[in-house]
Structures are given as structure tokens and as C-alpha cells.
Amino acid sequence: MFYKNHGFVSVEGQKEFIDKDIGDGYLNSWGLFDDTLYEQLFNRIKNLHKNTSPWGVFSINIGTHQPEGYLARQCEKVKYGDGNDNLLNAAHCTDALIGQLYRALKAEGILDDTVVVFGSDHLAPVTIKPYETLKKAERHNLFMVSGAGIHPAKNPRQGTTLDIAPTLLNYLQFGSQAIGLGRDLNGKLLTLAEAFPSQNLIDRKLLSWRKVIDTSFWGYPTLKNILSINLSDKKIDIGSQEINFPALIRYTSSGKIEEILYGGKNILSTGDNRFLLGFYLVNLISNNQLFLWVDRCEELSTLNPSLGEYKGRYCYYNGSLASARSISSLIPNDNFSIKIEMDNAFDISSLQPSKFRKELMEKNLIQWEKIIFKPEMQISHTEKAVSAAGIDAIVKSTGIEDNKISEFGLFLVRYNYSYAPGTGINYKMEVMSKLSLCDKSSDNLSIAQLSNTLSLEKGYVPLFYAIVGNLDQECKQGVTHPLTDSSLNDLSNLKPGEPYIALFDEKMNTVHEKTGHSNQTIALYLKFNDNE
Fold it and tell me: What percent of the chain clears pLDDT 70, i.e. is strictly above it?
């Protein structure tokens, strides 16, 4: 969507490669291996250079991606050093493949009137094996330009990735011009990094400019007294623009929009609550700030409990955290019009904001806890999120990462992985059993026996086990039929409807327990083999 919205006429990824049978089945979990990628790239560039003017091609390689890299078939015998680090072998391979592509472009005469740009998206993260060696050196993102009329040189100026676009446009003979906060690194204007020579200063300046940047860049219109909500398309019509909801709009008493915040789909991606709109109301909005919040009725029921009866439907809430007067309602149909609250100068409650923030924090935010997990196999794993929702929780999320369990109850799950130097790591969650912990008529439950009820798929190894979910509401007396071979103290005291997580290592040893109230969602954010 990003590429298409920025004028690219053709965008291809793994799905398109499969549909067109590019690579003939030789794909990894991301897409093409680098040898196929650069072969495709060379052929397309030759065709564009011959038949189109002007033209541009952008490609993203996968070979050097953490944690273990994706070694191309063409480089199966390529090794870096002693060859024991798969990521370094893959990086060495991609380096050779890029050099091979560059020489081919040069031999074709394409570089006589073409600019080639090399750039990295981020530094190698802490999860990779060579990190301890890398962090001892001064590290930078790569930005290198070569090709038509460019002579070898190193530019010593301090810059940021914001400076790439204006620098590149000058190489393409559009002149040296500033673009937003970006500056031409070969020009005369100070870059952001030169004007504010520390990351802390840059962060503070960007935060202080946020309203100006939002208003100038996004061009928010001014709210009118009446706006329309289209339920089927999930859009809010604010005059000259339509915005998708769930969304929270901050505005002034004159109707000037200061910020639009969108609800994120992947709420477990970062181990915190920044993708939940309740987070902004708890942490980043002043008591008297006017806002319009359009979302699921359950989400808004924290501010107006009567909205809770419309489960699964959409509502709106308009006012401020401190305003005793607010407007809220179900959105019953398409093209539903609402009158916006523009005056917040009276009926202010000094106690209400604290009450709202406390309830929002307890009900609308995930109760996170971060732990370090150390499996026996020393493979670099990416962070994982394990979550469990109480029976009355607003944020319904039980499972591991994007693997959700929609039923109520407690479930034993196994999280497995397979690893191969060529294709990297693949993960899979398996639900092994639903636990009956208050049925005295059933046999005693053994966690060891339950862990063996489902055989492993060939090539997969357990990374960890977990019990996730909430205690059945039928368990009026709590847990009366506990697991026989585990010491789970919090589980024994669990009340009906309360969320619960127990984490076990690959040998079913207990690692951690976490519980919450019935109206909460709890989560563990797992980092692997990280001693920092």
C-alpha cells in the first residue's frame, strides 16, 4: 500500500512471485533468495533501460536478514571465516552477488546514464550471533551512491536517513533542495544531525515540532459542527477528507484538528500498548483536551458503561476526560451524522480524569510483563508475545503472536520451530489440550502426559510450552482438579473468568506464571538469550 500510494506502477512480493512462478518454487518464507532476486533485477533493468525513459527500480534483499540469514543456493559452498556463523556466510554471499550484478550492469553500459543506490534499513539487532563483535565498533547505516558521473569519495558529514531523498535528487540533476527535514549531503544547508548533534536533542526537537509536522504534512482539515460516519466502509467524513476508524481525533474548541490516532491491528507486536488507543488517553492527552473516539462499543464502555450492551458493534464518544457533559452513542447505520462538541469551557470535573485513566489502564490496556527466556539451543530467536484474555476483557487476545485461540477456557499450547540455513526459522503454535481443572469425575491431569498427546511435525523442535486462557466460569469453586506434576501456585488460586499464563521450557520445567482480573488481558513479552 505504501509503494502504491507513492506512485509505483508495479509492486511485487512473495505472492506475486508464486503467482508468476518466478523462482520455480525456490523461495524462502519472505520471498526470493538473493541469487534469483538479482537475476530478475538484471533482466528487468536491461529491458527498462532499453525501452523506457525515465525509469526506476527499487529492490529489497532478504539474504542478510536476521537472525540466521537466507543463504542463496548459488552460495552453498561460500563461507566467511570458519563458516560457523550462518548469518555471516549469508552476508558474504549477498556481498558477492551484488558485486556480480554491479559488474554486469557496468558491462552492459547501463551505468553510463544510471544512478545506483545502496542503503540499509537498520543496524543489525542484539538477537544475532555476531552482535558482541559488532557493538565494539562504530556502526552506521549504509548510504552509497554510484554510477553515472560519480567519482569515488567519502562524505564525512553527519546525516540521517531523512537526508537520502534530497541528496539523491541532486544526483539525478533536480538541484540541491531541502525536503521536509532532509538536506542534500552535498549541499550547503545544515542537516538535522549537524544542527542538533545528539540523538536526545533530535528526539526532543521532533517531539516539540510534532503538532506543526502533523498539521503541515497531513494537512488536517477543520472540523465542522456536523460530521458523517459511514459504517460499512468504516470511514469518518470530515469534509475534505475521509479517515478510517477505529480512530481518535484530538481537536481544539475551534474545531482545529491537532492529531489523528489510529487503532493498530497487530496489538502484540511491540510488547507495549502503543497500538491501543486507550494508551493515548491514559498517557498523552490533557484533561481538557477535546477528542472524538470512534471504535468498538466495548472499548468506549470504559468512558460510558451503557455502550457495553452493544457488543460487536461500533460507537462514538465525544468530549474530554474532564468534561461532565459528553456525547456518546451507538452508530446504528450508514451515513450516520453526529454533532461535534465544540465548547469545553464549563461542566468540568477535577476527579473524573483520574478515574477514567485508572479504568482505561486496567481494562483497555494489556498488562505486560517482560522476561528473558533461555532455551538450550543457541539459535537467535525473535521476540515473542504470549497473551491471555479474561472472560470480560475488552482486548480479546489469547494465544502466541498472531496465533489466536477464540474459545474460552485454559489451553496447553506448544510453540515449535524448524530451522534450516537456506530457509531460516519457521514457527508454529499447536493447541495440545483444553484443560478441565474443576471436573472431579475426570482422571488426574498430568502436564507431562498432556505434553506428549500430539506428536511433533517432522523437522520441528519445541521452543516452549504455555498454558493460556481463562478459568471456565463453571468452575464456581475455583481449581478443584489441579495438575498433578507441576507446582503452579497462581493456578491453584485462580478464580472463574480470570486470565492466566504459565510458561514452560522445552523440557516442561516451569519458567513463569502470570494472572489478572476477569476484565483484563495479560501478556508476557519474551526475549531470548539476551543478558542485557
Answer: 96
First to last CA, the chain: 36
Angle (nearest 5°) at CA 273 between 271 and 274? 105
Write out the DSSP string of 109-165. TGGGS-EEEEE-SS---TTSTTHHHHTTS-----EEEEETTPPP--------GGGHH
pLDDT digits (tens, 9 = 90+) for 86-118: 889 999 999 999 999 999 999 999 999 999 999
Q: For 151-203, what is each residue's pLDDT tens digit?
A: 999 999 999 999 999 999 999 999 999 998 999 999 999 999 999 988 889 98
Residue at 265: amino acid letter: K
What is the Cα–Cα distance from 64 to 43, expressed in whole angstroms?
22
Residues in the chain predicted with pLDDT less than 50, given as ranges, are 531-532
User: Checking DSSP bridges between strand 410-420 and strand 521-528, what pairing results, if any?
Assistant: unpaired
Nearest by Cα to 107 from 173, 150, 45: 45
Long-range contact list for 498-501, CB < 8 A, 24+ apart? 498/390, 498/391, 498/470, 498/471, 499/388, 499/389, 499/390, 499/393, 499/398, 499/469, 499/470, 500/388, 500/410, 500/467, 500/468, 500/469, 500/470, 500/471, 501/386, 501/387, 501/388, 501/466, 501/467, 501/468
pLDDT of 532 reads 44
* 494 vs 388: CA distance, rounded Å: 13
One-letter amino acid identity for 406? S
Q: What are the DSSP calls for 471-513, one per residue?
A: --TT-TT--SS-BTT---HHHHTPPTT-EEEEEE-TT--EEEE
Q: State the Cα–Cα distance between residues 82 and 67, nearest whole angstrom.
A: 18
CA distances from 503 to 332, 400, 519 (A): 43, 11, 22
Residues in the chain: 532
Per-residue pLDDT, 422? 57
Radius of gyration, alpha carbons of the chain? 28
The 3-state DSSP class for residue 193 equals helix
pLDDT for the residue 43: 95
pLDDT (0 to 100) of residue 346: 56
Q: Is the pTM of this model over 0.85?
A: no
Backbone angles phi, psi at 500, to 5 degrees: -150, 140
CA–CA distance, 42 with 205 (Å, rounded to integer) = 42
Tell me how far apart the alpha carbons of residues 356 and 86 are, in angstroms, rounded to a whole number: 51
